[in-house]
Design brief:
The protein is an alpha/beta fold. It has one domain: 3-Layer(aba) Sandwich (Rossmann fold). It has 9 helices and 10 strands. A 6-stranded mixed sheet has the order 6-7-8-3-9-10, sandwiched between helices. The N terminus and C terminus are likely disordered. The structure holds adenosine-5'-triphosphate (ATP) and magnesium ion. The site of adenosine-5'-triphosphate has 11 residues, from strand 2 and helix 1.
């Protein structure tokens, strides 16, 4: 895979986040501006990595994109239509096209139902025709069709996360958001699950907003990356450009802190502590 040319270049824009601000009230303290004038865009079959330290506002941004967080100012357009918490309550059909995969796959799977029927529920939710069937989806994520009759607790954490991904992809989303989807997985699985999300999203023609602390993995799956710090986007651009020539001091510091050799051999041009 090469990241030189963004995969979604020239494709239809599915997400436009325009200068959004999200503030939280804190009892007895001043307002907290968790997201402060963030703008992002995403096209079909494009992967945008959103990285930054804990508490910088990544999840708040993701929730705002889904309409789960009221905006203090700015706007979010999904397929050209505004997303707002008000419209989310009425769940207009077009918002079914946004699916999220969370850190803990239990957040999206019902422990009391067989996984086959849970995946089936979502099939074709957003599209008129069923693009996938359950068996196909299970195989896509490395499981066996006979696994459809099992319950979530009968799988490992990594398998559960792959089931959550299969379920999200099966709905035919235009936008897939992974909020730390690999953080709870064993290190040996993280790269594979991240690559799987990328491959399935691209195959389905979805845009993928991939939020992660793991910059080395983001480097291998994203076309573009946005570096967030204290509620603002410090820097945004093609992954290779940001990695090789970070312009903000913050991005330089963040990238310099990545361990160099991860054994994958896929991180050319990565700045090292020694070089910086
Ligand atoms: N519901 C809330 N009420 C008040 N403050 C909140 C709320 N949710 C988040 N915050 C605060 O907003 C800031 C951004 O939080 P957010 O969860 O978006 O960060 P994050 O980048 O996702 O962090 P992490 O990498 O740890 O998941 C933090 O200071 C957090 O404490
Ligand atoms: Mg978060």
């Amino acid at each position: 895979m090469t990241n030189e040319t963004p995969a979604g270049d020239g494709a239809e824009e599915i997400l436009a986040v325009n200068d959004i601000t999200v503030t939280y009230r804190r009892p007895g303290r001043s307002l907290l501006t968790a997201v402060d004038g963030v703008s992002l865009s995403l096209r079909r079959s494009e992967v945008l990595g959103l990285v930054g330290e804990s508490g910088c506002g990544k999840s708040t941004t993701a929730r705002a994109v889904c309409g789960l967080e009221p905006l203090t100012s700015g706007s979010v357009l999904f397929n050209g239509e505004p997303v707002s918490p008000l419209s989310m309550k009425r769940r207009p059909k077009h918002l079914l096209g946004i699916q999220m995969v969370f850190q803990n796959p239990y957040a999206s799977l019902n422990p009391r139902r067989r996984i086959g029927s849970q995946i089936e529920d979502g099939l074709g939710l957003n599209r008129q025709r069923d693009a996938w069937n359950v068996n196909e989806l299970l195989e896509k994520v490395g499981l066996h069709p006979s696994d459809r009759d099992k319950y979530p607790h009968q799988f490992s954490g990594g398998q559960r996360q792959r089931i959550a991904i299969a379920r999200a992809i099966g709905t035919g989303p235009d936008l897939l958001i992974g909020d730390e989807p690999i953080a709870s997985l064993d290190a040996s699985l993280q790269q594979r699950v991240a690559a799987l999300m990328r491959d399935l999203a691209i195959q389905a023609g979805s845009g993928l907003l991939f939020i992660s602390h793991d910059l080395a993995i983001v480097r291998t799956i994203a076309d573009r990356v946005a570096v967030m710090n204290r509620g603002i986007i410090e820097e945004e651009g093609p992954v290779d450009t940001v990695w090789r020539h970070p312009t903000s001091a913050y991005a330089r510091r963040l990238l310099a802190a990545i361990p160099v050799a991860d054994g994958l051999g896929k991180l050319p041009g990565l700045p090292t502590r020694r070089q910086n």
